[in-house]
């Protein structure tokens, strides 16, 4: 990998001869090497799911939060460098709070996504700053309905029906394409998301935790973590499905 | 548009939107008058203008416009109970008859207000920002009623110190792990906690009833009856009230519930009230 961008990759203000900004690409690679995060936009809401590798047996369960509440109706899942993602989430909170102060209503998803996108892009413009090594998946439920956005380290923000980032993104995206998201409720989508995460998890014996959140009709249009019983049920179904497919093989 | 910070500003204190400096420096004051909306470019000062307002475009609250009347609250066995009517009066006019003067802060705390309704709406916005902050950190910790009470004390006292008060008498009621909580904060920052608190006319009318009948271990039926009696007395004797009330309950078990509006049985057919002069000395 080293040697590809020799000389042109030292600063984010340098283009390479073939038009790439290597620092941004390297930031993207940092995200691609992190654990998988996926988002699904369904009929009645959005589901975000993170696979969290348990780095040490000494960690308290549920620590290393990857999903943050931004406002009551917006949540964010972080892939890549966790502290970078935390900075972006804090900025998203500032934007949401200031929008509410000025306009008196909760920030619409597309406005927040644009503001976060231009904030992340800022860090690709100046020599003295490095690009954020984090992609955030933004789940919002505003008066226009539910929406899922992804903002990557270059500052590109795109709107998705379903997407995945991180190590297992290719396999996860293949699985997501098979789903009929427009007809699914969030309850069903949680089960599907957990199944996909279990499926694409690298089988190197490392334990992993799941962090799943939703914003949907059932949650009162508020972004919150999925109820524990639903998550447990989804994990059971996912493990059963894995065993079935193992047996088939 | 740059957002103007209206809360948590270190220089100005919470809840205030002002120009860059709270006290204008001599550089600002000694400036020659700049052309502006209130000054024509020719340089002549318009007539009949209060000179002080030329330097300071901010207005300070001098009197309230749309007001709510008394609030009363008691502790009982399961928690606390707050009661008030639903009127926002415009001077003597009973203008808005469905104003909810109670605000649910979180699952453990309610704030009710008398006084200027717009200032109360501003207070609700501040509390909403605090609550959303709690929601955002997502660690299961909510503001306790004591914390809400202390915060509101500071906000109101700081505004009073700037001669620009939030013209409210607030009652903060709620439950905490160490018991139920009731506090009152006045517009100049006066505050106290007690087993029963009242604002406005209820100070004179409901407090004697509470002193006699309120007990910390009274049952819910007894507490409701006491509250109904207090609300009724206040309605009879306060000209700026209507027969439409709400009662908010905060309990350890069930959290906050604000009731639907209800009316009380009141009589206006007392003979001496219907024909007051008939019974007066010297009448015929």
Automatic annotation (TrEMBL), chain A:
Residues 8-30 form the Proteasome alpha-type subunits domain. InterPro entries: Ntn_hydrolases_N (IPR029055), Proteasome_alpha (IPR050115), Proteasome_alpha-type (IPR023332), Proteasome_asu_N (IPR000426), Proteasome_sua/b (IPR001353). Pfam families: Proteasome, Proteasome_A_N. Transmembrane segments: none annotated. It comes from the Eukaryota. GO terms for biological process: ubiquitin-dependent protein catabolic process. The proteasome is a multicatalytic proteinase complex which is characterized by its ability to cleave peptides with Arg, Phe, Tyr, Leu, and Glu adjacent to the leaving group at neutral or slightly basic pH. The proteasome has an ATP-dependent proteolytic activity. This is Proteasome subunit alpha type-3. It comes from Edaphochlamys debaryana.
Automatic annotation (TrEMBL), chain B:
The keyword ATP-binding does not apply. Gene3D superfamilies: Glutamine Phosphoribosylpyrophosphate, subunit 1, domain 1. The keyword ATP-binding does not apply. This is Proteasome subunit beta. One of its GO terms (biological process) is proteolysis involved in protein catabolic process. Pfam families: Proteasome (PF00227). Belongs to the peptidase T1B family. It is found in: Cytoplasm; Nucleus. GO terms for cellular component: cytoplasm; nucleus; proteasome core complex. Component of the proteasome complex. It comes from Edaphochlamys debaryana. SUPFAM superfamilies: N-terminal nucleophile aminohydrolases (Ntn hydrolases). Component of the proteasome, a multicatalytic proteinase complex which is characterized by its ability to cleave peptides with Arg, Phe, Tyr, Leu, and Glu adjacent to the leaving group at neutral or slightly basic pH. The proteasome has an ATP-dependent proteolytic activity. Keywords: Cytoplasm, Nucleus, Proteasome.
